[in-house]
Amino acid sequence: MSLKEKLESFIAPERVRTRYIDRVSFASDAGFYYLVPQAIVQPVNEEEIVSLFRFSAEENVPLVFRAGGTSLSGQSVTDGILVDLAQHWRGVTVEEEGRAVRVQPGITGAMVNAHLRRYRAKIGPDPSSISAAMMGGILSNNSSGMCCGVKLNSYHTLKHIRFILPDGKTFSTEKPSDYIRFETECPTLFSTLAGIRERILADRQLHDRIRQKYEMKTTVGYSLNAFVDFEHPLDIMAHLLVGAEGTLAFIAEAVLRTVPDYPHKSTALLYFPDIYAACQAIVPLTQAGAMMVELADRAALRSVEHMPGMPAALQTLPDGAAALLIEFQEHSPEALENRVEAFLRSANQLSLLEPPVFTRDPVLQDLYWKMRKGMFPAVGAVRKSGTTVVLEDIAFPVARLGDAIIDLQTLFARYHYDNAIIFGHAKDGNIHFVVTQSFNTEEEIQRYDRFMREVVTLVVDKYDGTLKAEHGTGRNMAPFVETEWGGEAYEILRVIKDAVDPRRLLNPGVIINDDKDAHLRFLKALPTVEEEVDRCIECGYCEHRCPSRDITTTPRRRIVVRRVLKRLEQQGDQKHYRLLRNQYNYDGLETCAVDGLCAAACPVSIDTGDLTKRLRRENHSVLANRIALTMARNFGWIEGTMRAALYLGTGVNKLLGQRTMSKLTFRLRKVFPSFPRWSNQLQAPPARLRLKHVAQGLETVVYFPACISRMMGRYEGKEKDLLQTFLSVCRKARFDVVVPDDVAKLCCGQMFSSKGFAPAYQHTARNILASLWRATQKGHFPVVVDVTSCAFTLQKMRFALSDEDKVRFDQLRILDSVAFLHDEVLPRIAVRRQKENIVLHPVCSLQKMKMDRKFLAVAQAFSKKVTIPENAGCCGMAGDRGFLFPELTASATEAEAAEVRQETFDGYYSSTRTCEMAMSEAVQHNYESILYLVDEGGG
C-alpha cells in the first residue's frame, strides 16, 4: 500500500493531500527553511490524532503539527507528515463572563479577541502576527508580544490544557481524576518529571539560574520554570507544552485566563537623536505606566516612512535617529488623561527631537500599529531579488539594551548587512533584528554562519541575554541551546524529550538537535519570479482572509508554487514542471476570487489577485482575446441574450418546479464542467430602465445601474426591483436622477478585468467613460453605482485609459451606493421606521474602499441592532466564480453562514447582488441591497 492509501484507511480521502502541488506548497512556512512533506493530513477529531501518532510510530515517519504557519524559526516544516490544523480546529468559547476563554489550536488569536471584545477582555499574548497566528502556535511558541511582557504570556495565562502524548494517551488538567491517571498510566514519565523537579530544587545554582532566565523573555529550550513553578508532574507537563513547539505532544484544547482590554488609549511616536538616547527613555516610560514601548532604529523607520498617512517628520529624521512608539491604556478617560499629563510633565528630561504629540484617534492609532507590525515584511518587500529575510529576536537586560544594540550594529557593519534594521519590545529588552541574506552560494551561507555565531557570543557571553525571546527555538537556534543554558540544563532538556518521544518522531530537529550546523540545513531558495512574488516573504498574514483557503490554496501557497515552478524550469525538470503547472490552473487560477483582501492583510499590500489576473491574461490565446473584445463591443446583445436566458430559466422553474433549472445545470456541468450553475436566487430580470430625467429636487445625480442590477436586480418577495428602489430613495431625498441613454450597452468591465482580457477591458473603459462624460455634463454631476464591486471597478479603471481620457476621468466623481446613502441621503431623509435586528455582509470592495464604517452607520440609522459577523469575509462569488465553481463559494461562506444561522434576524443586507445571492444560499435567508433598508425605513 502507498502512504496515501495507508493514511486513507483512517482519515477521509479528501483530507489526505498528496498531490504534488499540495506537497510543495505546504513545504514553506514564514521562516527560511524548506522541507517537502510526504503528505498533508487534516484530522477532525482526537481519535484521528491518536491514529496519526500510532501510524507515525509503526511507519517510522515524522509527524509535525501546523496551525497558522507564521513561525519564523523553522518549527512547522517537515519531510514527514504535516498535520494541518487550520481548517477543522477553530473552536472558541468564552467562559466566566469573559474572564476565561476555551480555544482549539486552529483559531486565530485575533478571532479569539473578537469573541472577547464585548467583555472588554483579550488574551494576554499579543504577537504582531496575531491576525494570522493561531492558538496552537501561540501556545506552542509561548508567544508574547508588545504589551504582555513576561507575566501575561501564554505560559502564565494558561488555566487548563488538554493534550495527547505520542503514545496516544490523553490528559486534561481540568479533570482531577487525570492527575491520578497520569501517575498510573505514565509511570516512567511521571517519575522522570518528578525526579527532574527534585534535582532542580536541590541545586540552588541551577534553580536560581532558571529563575533569573525567566525574569527576561525567553523561549529557548523547554519551559524549565515549570519545575520551579509547579509541583505535580501533570501540571509540569502541561506547562512544558507551552513553548515546546509541538515536539512533546498535541495540544487539543486550552483554557486561558484573559486580561483587560482597556477601552481608552493614547498613543505617541517619540523621536530621539540616537538609539542610545531612546533606550535611556525606556525605564522612565515604564515607570510612568506606558503599556507599550516599541523601539525602532532609523533603518526600521526608513522602511515604513513612505506608507500612506505616515508623519512627515519620519522622512526628515537625521541618520542615526530612533523612535519609541508608546501607548498608555486605562479604564476611564480621566485616568488616561492623568497618565499622559504626568508623563508630559517629566518629558523634558528625555532627549527628544520634538515635543510629544499624543493621539486618541483610533484611525491614526491603527496606522501607527500597522506601521510597527509592517517593519519586518516591509524590509522583505524591498530586499534584493533572490535573497531571503532572516528575523531573530533576542533579549538583553533593559539597563544594558543601548550598549547591546550598538554592539549589534557593529556586527552588521562587519558582515556587510547594510540594510539591517532593529525594532522590538523595548520595555522588555526584547528586540528583533532583520537582515536580508542570500543562501544561493556556499560563501553566503558561511557569512551567515559566522555572523550568527558572533551574535550568539554577544548575547550569551557578553550580556547574559537570551537568544530567543518569543519566537521559539526552532531549527535556527537549536544548535545553540546548550550554549545559552549550559550543559546540565541542556541534559535535562534532552531527558524531557526522550521521556516523552523516545524515537524523536514528533517535530524532529526542533529544539533538540545533535547537528551543530542544523541552522544551515534545508535553507529556502527564493528565485526571481514575478514582481508580486519577489516581494513576498511568505509570512502567511494573508491566509486567513483568502476565500479559497479551505478548498484549494492561499495567496502564500500560490506564491510558493510560483517559486517552485521557476526552480523546476531552471533545473530543466519538465515532467514536474508540467504536472505542477496543470495542477496550478485550478488551484491557483480558477479558484482565486481576485478579491484583493490578501493585499489588505499583507503588510506590504501584495495583491495576488493582480498576479492571478496577469497570469490569466498571459494564458489567453489571440482567439480568446478577440472573442472577448467582440463581446465587449456588442455588450448590448450579450445583455439581451442573458435577459432572455433568465426569462426562460425562471419560466421553466415556474412550469416544472422551483429546482428544475438547478438540477438541469447540475447535470450539464458533469458533461461540460465550465457550464454555469443556475442559482435559485435568480429571478426574471427587471424591466428596462428608460428613465431620462426626473425633475423632483434641486440636485442631480447620474445613476449608473450596473449590468448585474439590470439583469439580476429582482428580489424574491419584493414589489420593487433594485432600480426602482434606487429611484424611490432618490425621490425621498429630493434628488433629480439622470440615467445614461446608452446604459443598456454598458458594463463596468469587471468581467473582462478579472479574467485578464485586457483589450476587452480597455474598450469597455473607454466606452463607459465617454457615456459618463456626456451624462454628467463633463463631470458636473456625481455618478452613483448601485453595486459596490462595480463602483470599485469604475473607480480603478484609470490605468486602462489613454492620457486624454485620464484627464476626463479625473473630473468625474464616482460614488458607490453606500457612500451615496451615507454622505448624501442620510442628511436629507427622515427615519420613519427602524428594524429591530439586522445582519450585514460587507463585501470585499467595501473593505478595499474603506467604507465599512459608512455601511455600518447607514444600517444603524434604520435598525436598533446591527450585527456584522465575526467571520464575515469574501463570499468567493467574484462576479461569476460562484456560478462556475460553486464549491468555492460554498467553502468561502461556510463559517460566516454558520455564525449567522445561530440567530434570527428581521433583515439581511449587503451591497452587491451576486454576493447577496451567495449569502442567501448559504444562510437560507434572502439577503437584499442596503437600498431596500433605506427605502423602507425612510421618508
Notes on the structure:
The structure is a single chain. This protein has 939 residues and is an alpha/beta fold. Among the domains are: 262-471, Vanillyl-alcohol Oxidase, Chain A, domain 3 (3-Layer(aba) Sandwich), CATH 3.40.462.10; 532-615, no CATH class; 824-937, Rossmann fold (3-Layer(aba) Sandwich), CATH 3.40.50. Helices cover 44% and strands 13% of the residues. The chain has 42 helices and 26 strands. It has a 7-stranded antiparallel β-sheet, sandwiched between helices. Strands 5, 6, 7, 8, 9 and 10 form a 6-stranded antiparallel β-sheet that branches. The protein has a 5-stranded mixed β-sheet with strand order 18-20-19-21-22, sandwiched between helices. Helix 41 (913-923) links the parallel strand 25 (908-910) and strand 26. The longest helix has 22 residues, at 635-656. The termini are far apart.
In terms of DSSP E residues, the strand content is 5-15%
Secondary-structure content class = alpha/beta
Overall shape: it is globular
Number of helices: 42
Q: What's the layout of helices and strands?
A:
Elements: H1 3-7, E1 16-17, H2 20-25, E2 39-41, H3 46-59, E3 63-66, E4 81-84, E5 92-95, E6 100-103, H4 109-116, E7 121-123, H5 135-140, H6 154-157, E8 158-164, E9 170-172, H7 176-185, H8 187-202, H9 204-213, H10 226-229, H11 233-240, E10 250-260, E11 264-272, H12 275-280, H13 282-287, E12 292-297, H14 298-304, E13 322-330, H15 333-346, E14 358-359, H16 362-373, H17 375-381, E15 388-395, H18 401-414, E16 421-425, E17 430-437, H19 442-462, H20 481-485, H21 487-500, H22 531-535, H23 555-571, H24 574-590, H25 597-601, H26 608-619, H27 622-633, H28 635-656, H29 660-671, E18 693-694, E19 699-704, H30 707-712, H31 722-732, E20 735-738, H32 750-753, H33 758-775, E21 783-785, H34 788-795, H35 803-809, E22 814-816, H36 817-825, E23 835-840, H37 844-848, H38 852-861, E24 863-867, H39 881-884, H40 886-900, E25 908-910, H41 913-923, E26 928-929, H42 930-937
